[in-house]
Write a structure and sequence with these properties.
Elements: E1 7-12, E2 28-29, E3 32-33, H1 34-43, E4 48-53, H2 58-64, E5 69-72, H3 77-86, E6 94-99, H4 107-118, E7 123-129, E8 134-135, E9 141-142, E10 148-150, E11 154-157, H5 158-165, H6 174-180, E12 186-189, H7 200-211
Parallel strand pairs: 1-4, 1-6, 4-5, 7-12
Antiparallel strand pairs: 2-3, 6-11, 7-10, 7-11, 8-9
Helix pairs in contact: 5-6
Length: 212
Amino acid sequence: MAAPLSVWTVVVAAGSGTRFGAAKQYVELAGVRVVDRSVAHAAAVSDGVVVVVPPGDVEAETLRSRATAVVAGGSSRAASVRRGLAAVPDDAAVVCVHDAARPLADRHVYERVIGEVRAGAAGAVPVVPVTDTIRRVDGGVVDRSTLQAVQTPQAFRAELLRAAHADAAEATDDAGLLEAAGHPVVTVAGHPRNIKITHPDDVAAAEAWLRS
């Protein structure tokens, strides 16, 4: 029986936390830092984890983090992903990209996206239905039945993700880069608790999920 395709995860934790008011990746969530929770979940399903942090934090995080490698982020999310990819071994077959600010993404979400790529998909992303009523800025309600909210982790065939990033394109979503290159991306079920820590109130919401 062939060995399973190797999986590496890039955890992006290089933001400055402008909207949050601090470096949210280092905020404690029920006694454990947000970034450490994200790295731990990734490590449970990956052969290696690269965490991307602000340049000034590399030395401290190398000593503290349980990631396989710690690298300095770039001037944008896409640039940070590229720097993380550069630290992933060439023989990795599947690469997941995860925002550290989603510290409640558990192994089940990882297994779903990884499973789709191992089965042949170019990439896979977790999504949840949009439950709020959405209005356009210029007026009018958007049909929310046609919308999905995208989460991370997202999983991709390593060579396709590297190629999509090769031209240094800017994007807030790696799946969009693959689709722009002509590679269809499939969706899997995400989870409502896989929230993103954006504002201080989100910490309380995440802790409530942990208690439940």
